[in-house]
Amino acid sequence: MVASDATSHRWSSWAGLAVVAILISGSLALWQPLTSGVDWAHTHHFYKAFLKNAVWRGEIPLWNPYVFLGRPFLADMEVAAFDPPTWLFIVFPESLALGLLVGLHLFFGGEGMRRLVRAWGGGQAPAWLAGVAWMICPPVLAHIQGGLVPFACVLAFWPWMLRDADRLLITPSWRLGCRLALWFGLSFLAGHAQAWWLNGVAVGLYAAPRCLYGEALAALRRTIRGYILLLGAALFGLALAAIQFLPLLKMAAQGNRGQSSMAFAASFPIKWAGLSSLLTVIDPSQTGWWDGHLYVGLAVVALGLLGLARLRDVRMRALAAMSVLCLGLGLGLNTPVFEVVYRLIPGTQNFRFAARFAAYPLFALMIAGACEWRHLVASEGHRRGFALGLIVVAMAGIRWRLGPGMADAPWGALTGIGGLALGAGLLFLGGARRFQLAGLIVAVSWMMDMGFAQRLLAPRYGTITAPGNIRITPKWRQRHSVKSAGVEPVRVFSQMRDVKANSGMVDGFSSVGGNVALCSERVWAYLYLVAGSRLPEFQLTFLDRSVQRKGPFPYKGMDIVVGQAANREFFLDQKASARAWLGTRPISMENWSEALLRFVRGADPHKVTLVEADSFSDLGGSHEGRFEPATVTAFS
């Protein structure tokens, strides 16, 4: 009978979370198309379409010739070509496939949070609500709305990783190690390197305080063993994902993030004023936009803080330590934490958007708050319930003083009133130990609160509008009599404000720029130096406007330049230079950067070929000779 009840509870929890996931993905689709988020519309839409078209043609799309003068395609982690859910886009229309992708990962992450809370002793209902809280918190839902869907997909693995890592640290076993490695491997395939790295860092920050209990020498041994096990699981996971990891490793070695600085890694942090988003909905510009907004409702924050204050509980102590460190990292160089971590943890220098660390303190509040509820129904519950009510009333009062922080004042006022009502209810019901009714009030008030918050935040998360975007389709080119000076496809230079960054992958033109997470360092340097522009410090994904200073045609060989000056929609150059030529007079250079500088200073590539010293011996034939034209007959 007990087993039957447990199974029934499990199935009802699954069904409830599935319904919530469907409602969320459906509501997002009704509010605004899921495909309209900035990152999706400029990048991932074209990746998925390019992959689908190639597969249906029976091709293996190793190379993408349409973005940043050509770059690897399958090796690009953001394509997520080896992640099974991505295959939905090969079979179904994009809108349906994206809805399924979002719904599946919302359910998976919510179920992971529910199981984690249950494994740590939380009740059925609080565990289920923790799963719902994970689904609708800003780091998850807002990234989906903003189009950075792979980031949210990778975050869905974190509760599962923490649950197995927590057990592995204390009671090591092959089964736990292999399962944790599986989470590392699958999450790597999901398509966002930084989110994968953040998941690992958060688990690592949890590990040390989790192991530090009991006799000092035993705790030290436990900690060392724990980190060895976690590192082994991560490496095993990368081995499972080797089909994606090894090509990415090679791309990264040649990418434009190799010379990153501490300022780059700490860029786009949460501002100190952004911490008030724990208590009220504020303008996302204070929090690194969706990356660091902390609003998960007063009930979750109050319960979570009360739970994290149980420092005698080693798990809560570890969660509290992880939360403080992650919040310090999210503030960037506003605290000394980031500088220390930058020097200690590998990979920190390769990523920006420090505010993204803030997701993990929110997850900790959800876990601690759900686990705390069991203490409220214990013998001392009336005292803690009274304290909880006071905390919520105080927080609601602070928020009332802060104001809604957004333009829609009535919605902010409603959330303030909801917080006061919640605190008053807990103050009375908690003191009277009527916790079932109190729990119902908490759940209903919190859901209403988060609904109001979403009403305020959703319009602020970046979406693009279709009107005004130029589509350089074959019909457009035919209408404007555009032909390539050499061989198809035509070569285009444009800004994202005019033409969607990676649209050449679908519309059939080759773009100088694009929107990618990792660009070849040589291509990146070439595009800026040839245009007479300095390399930007923080922007490494698309070309900024400084490359337009040289006039309509900053690069030779462009057929079309879109939206440059004099209110003209586009410029055509029907005499663009040849795309390729044959030169037989190579000159050895020490490295590619020296060759590039010489080219920028006036070396004519039609008459001399600059070759790196390491590659010079690979050239056969005479190194002294002539210049001959060549005809390009095909583009690959």
How would you describe what is shown here?
The protein has 25 helices and 10 strands. It is mostly helical. The strands form 4 sheets. A 4-stranded mixed sheet has the order 4-3-5-6, with no helix packed on it. Helix 1 packs antiparallel against helix 4 (94-119), helix 5 packs antiparallel against helix 17 (359-376) and helix 14 packs across helix 18 (381-402). It is globular and about 85 Å long. The N and C termini lie far apart (66 Å).
Average of the residue pLDDT scores: 79
What amount of the residues lies in strands?
A: under 5%
The total of helices stands at 25
Task: Tell me the distance between the termini.
Answer: 66 Å
Largest sheet: 4 strands, mixed
Given helix and strand content, the structural type is mainly alpha
Strand runs, count: 10
Radius of gyration: 27 Å
Shape field: globular
The unreliable regions are: 400-412, 463-468, 621-625
Largest sheet: spatial strand order:
4-3-5-6
How much helicity do the residues have?
55-70%
